Amino acid sequence: MIKDIQQSLDKAELNYHKLKKTNSRFIFISLIASVIATLLAGVTAFTGPVAGQGPPAWKWTCGIVAVFTATAAVFTGLHKQLTVSERLSKSIECRGKLKSLLISLQEGGNKDEVITEYRKIIEVYSEYIV
Question: Is the pLDDT score of 95 beyond 90?
C-alpha cells in the first residue's frame, strides 16, 4: 500500500512541477509583454516614434505596441482558459492528501481508513496522479 501511495505521490509531484512551470511562464510572458507595450507607448507619447521619423515610423511604433499588447492578451487568455491556476491549486491539494496518507501509514494508522481515503483521492484527483 505504501508503494502505491508513493508512486501516486511521485506522479502528483511531476504534475505539480509541470503546472507550476506553465503557470509561471504564462504569467511572466503576459506581464513582460504588457510592461514593454506600456513603456513603448509612454516613451512614444513623450519623444515621438521610436522607429524613425514621419508617418511610417508612427505606423511601425504603433504596430510594435500592438504586437506586445496582443501577446499579453493571448497569454492572459490562455492562462485563464486553460485554468492553470486552479489546476495548480488542486495539484497542491492532491500532494498534501497523499503525503498525509503516507504519514498516517508510517505511524501505524488504520489501514482500512487509509485505503478508503486513498480510493477517494484517486477518484477526485485522478488527472493529477495518472
Answer: yes
Three cell numbers written together for 33 = 509583454
Q: What is the pTM of this model?
A: 0.82
Average pLDDT over residues 26-40: 97
Average pLDDT in the 24-47 region? Answer: 96
C-alpha–C-alpha distance, residues 45 and 48, integer Å? 6
Cell 507550476 identifies what position?
20
Contact 8, 122 (CB under 8 A): yes
Q: Which range of residues forms the domain containing residue 104?
A: 2-129
Domain count, the chain: 1
Region of 83 please: left (phi>0), alpha (psi -120 to 50) or beta: left
Q: What is the DSSP code (8-state) at residue 51?
A: S
Q: Is the pLDDT of residue 130 over 80?
A: no
Question: In terms of Cα–Cα distance, which of 2, 9, 6, 3 is closest to 125?
Answer: 9
Q: Which residues, 6 or more positions from 45, have their beta carbon under 8 angstroms from its beta carbon?
A: none
